[in-house]
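Read as chain and fold; for instance:
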Amino acid sequence: MKNKVVAIILGVLSIAAGIFCLINPLAGSLASTLIAGWSFLILGAIQLFVAFRETGWGSRIWALLLGILGVLAGISLLSNPLEGVLTLTVILGVLFLVTGIMKFVAGFALPSGNLKLMVIISGAISALLGLMILSDFPGSAVVTLGVLLGVELIADGVAVLGLANAERSRA
């Protein structure tokens, strides 16, 4: 019984946070940047710890470099969140554009059918989103990350509520 209540509370809180991000996308963008900054910092520190446990020098050097890059990226995002919003928006726009083009091209290599059409459409949508983000830069930076975080939080909240409801139905 307690797990269902916790799941419902988490689902409602996630949906509320998502709505807040959609209402105030700048705050959501800053929150996204801070979350990314802390993630880079923590993962970089873990990578540095792992580097000292590696046995070969090649593996140790790569682990050290990745750990240092992660820590530096985290410190940069946390110390300059507004610049981080700009940087992450550019990265996101390029990522959408490149993966969209790759999916679009890969879709034509698939055999005819629904899957081929879905991959081509998915690629076109991703590439279009990337172009939209990059074409309105830096104006898009204010809202892009916040809107995406808001949509993700709402989707996660709905999923958690659905799982809680399914658990209640199963019990």
Summary: The chain has a mean pLDDT of 87. The two ends are 10 Å apart (CA to CA). The chain has six helices and no strands. Residues 81-109 form the longest helix (29 residues).
